[in-house]
Write a structure and sequence with these properties.
Pfam families: AMP-binding (PF00501), AMP-binding_C (PF13193). One of its GO terms (molecular function) is acid-thiol ligase activity. InterPro entries: AMP-bd_C, AMP-bd_C_sf, AMP-binding_CS, AMP-dep_synth/lig_dom, ATP-dep_AMP-bd_enzyme. Keywords: Ligase. It is built from 17 helices and 27 strands. It is an alpha/beta fold and about 525 residues long. Among the domains are: about 25-180, Rossmann fold (3-Layer(aba) Sandwich), CATH 3.40.50.980; about 430-530, 2-Layer Sandwich (GMP Synthetase, Chain A, domain 3), CATH 3.30.300. Strands 2-1-13-12-14-15-16-17-18 form a nine-stranded mixed β-sheet, with helices on both faces. Helix 2 packs across helix 4 (about 85-100) and helix 3 (about 55-70) crosses helix 4 (about 85-100). The model is unreliable at about 535 (pLDDT under 50).
């Protein structure tokens, strides 16, 4: 196990192997098997690129050889900061083959997040596009390298400037030692509830089981065509079942660069897409657009919605509008994945967030003292199972806070469990704003805002929003003249924070409400500002 990671105790390792959840397979080895079985069957469609399984396998081998020649070795960490394009898949599988670990950053991340990830992981390389949505990622890489001295190589998909062109990292395939299935295969990002993202180690064996089991739950097969509308670096579209689960079933993955109806509907029609994954706000946009679109969406069989709670009214409206079955998905990069099942009654699909994928996922709902609660009572969800991490990477403080003595993960989610085992998500115990599926850690944003010269104190809270579920509201006590919302957003942009973390709203206050023990009451602040305010700019 990689230094800085926490392994499962031996009794659990034996149990999960004996049950068949964990197999002696690696993620890089899985692609070899898929290529043998499916060969020329189309694996990936990305713009003008159309590769079969054998071609994807060949390209992964050649890039792996090029990475080794560059000096990337087993156990090294590489921050992968790519959008939905063919290079994303090749880079990940090449790193799996080398035994190096992709650290999957999101396209929306900027200086603050990327520098943190590079420093935390001691990344030896950073992989970026040349530009995306008007942003020059080479300039971003220059700034990151100045803050993360471990980064020896910047690999650029496109025009590389002074960096290494990814297309030139190539070589004749070489025999490489196969990583142990017990080793960490990749590092995913936590949704983050305090400060910058934490890193989640996922092993070859546990992630292999997760993608395989989720594909089975969703009924995927060789005829399945999955549209990756959300960024593939997200755990949801990556392997629940997502990109990797589709390939495990012999299906085809289609990468979308624009998840809007204008970008996605033509792909659904042209590629005969059968399944895709969305966050609730995007699902609502698709449902409304389907009423006027002349695109043929008849191939779409299953729409997964996750990342945030889908209101029951929307859950009932979406399948009718899009002409497909709905599946609610409630999961986390830490490993737990819940699905409504394909044979669940419509009311269960509309009103619950599913039940655990694995029959040996242990779920308990507890009160504030960790005492178990009966079905129907609302409490914190705690989980333990073959896909659920036992500790964050290099973060003993978070591990002490996030795990019970018997190894259950404290999710921070408030849920009710029904007698059927289905979960109803009621909210979050920890301080995070779920902005349309993007998790905004309020303490991180507050830390940055406190550096603004006009801000004496600040508290960021989530306020209800019909479209996104929640929006962020910065409650500011100014030093003198109050800053404007535009000034705060520009300040955060200059500090390299991802745009989805910028506050949507500003409220200027003289003081904060406090609890009986003197702490700021976030709940009281959020309740105060649930109505629209004029202080938005």
């Amino acid at each position: 196990m990689l230094e800085g990671c926490v392994d499962w105790p031996e009794e659990f390792r034996e149990r999960y192997r004996a049950a068949g959840y964990w197999r002696d397979e690696t993620l890089g080895g899985l692609l070899r098997g898929w290529a043998r079985r499916h060969g020329g069957r189309t694996a990936l469609v990305a713009g003008a690129t159309r590769w079969g399984y054998a071609e994807l396998d060949r390209r992964a081998d050649r890039l792996a050889a090029g990475l080794v020649a560059l000096g990337v070795a087993a156990g090294d960490r590489v921050v992968v900061h790519l959008p939905n394009r063919a290079e994303f898949a090749v880079v990940c599988f090449a790193l799996f083959r080398v035994g190096a670990l992709p650290v999957l950053a999101l396209p929306a991340h900027r200086d603050a997040e990327i520098a943190h990830l590079c420093r935390l992981s001691d990344a030896v390389a950073y992989v970026v596009p040349d530009e995306l949505d008007g942003v020059d990622f080479r300039a971003l890489a220059r700034r990151v390298r100045s803050e993360a001295p471990s980064v020896r190589h910047v690999l650029v998909a496109g025009e590389a400037a002074e960096f290494v062109p990814l297309a030139e990292v190539d070589g004749e395939p070489v025999a490489l030692p196969e990583p142990s299935p017990a080793e960490v295969a990749l590092l995913l990002l936590s949704g983050g509830t305090t400060g910058a993202p934490k890193l989640i180690p996922r092993t070859h064996r546990d992630y292999g089981y997760s993608l395989r089991a989720s594909a089975e739950v969703c009924g995927l097969g060789p005829g399945s065509v999955y549209l990756a509308a959300l960024p593939a670096a997200h755990a949801f579209p990556l392997a629940a079942p997502g990109v990797l689960g589709t390939w495990s079933a012999g299906g085809t993955v289609v990468f979308a660069t624009d998840p809007s109806p204008d970008g996605a509907f033509p792909l659904i029609e042209a590629e005969r897409v059968t399944i895709t994954s969305l966050v609730p706000p995007l699902a609502a946009v698709w449902a409304e657009a389907a009423e006027w679109s002349d695109a043929d969406l008849s191939s779409l069989r299953l729409l997964q919605v996750g990342g945030a709670r889908l209101p029951a009214a929307s859950a009932r409206r979406v399948p009718e509008a899009l002409g497909c079955r709905l599946q609610q998905v409630f999961g986390m990069a830490e490993g737990l994945v819940n699905f409504t099942r394909l044979d669940d009654p419509p009311d269960v699909v509309a009103t619950t967030q599913g039940r655990p994928m694995c029959p040996d996922d242990e779920v308990r709902v507890v009160d504030e003292s960790d005492a178990p609660l009966p079905d129907g009572a609302t409490g914190e969800l705690q989980v333990r199972g073959p896909c659920i991490l036992r500790g964050y990477y290099r973060d003993p403080v978070a591990n002490a806070r996030s795990f019970t003595a018997d190894g259950f993960f404290r999710t921070g989610d408030l849920v009710r469990r029904l007698p059927s085992g289905h979960l109803v998500v009621e909210g979050r115990r920890t301080d995070v704003v779920n902005r349309g599926g993007e998790k905004v850690p309020v303490e991180e944003v507050e830390h940055h805002l406190l550096a603004h010269p006009a801000v004496r104190d600040v508290v960021v809270v989530g306020v209800p929003d019909a479209g996104l579920g929640e929006r962020t509201c910065a409650c500011v006590i100014p030093r003198a003249a109050a800053p404007t919302l535009a000034e705060l957003r520009t300040f955060l942009q200059d500090r390299g924070l991802a745009a989805f973390k910028f506050p949507d709203r500003l409220e200027v206050l003289d003081s904060f409400p406090r609890t009986g023990v003197g702490k700021v009451s976030r709940r009281a602040l959020a309740a105060r500002f649930t109505e629209p305010s004029a202080a938005t700019g």
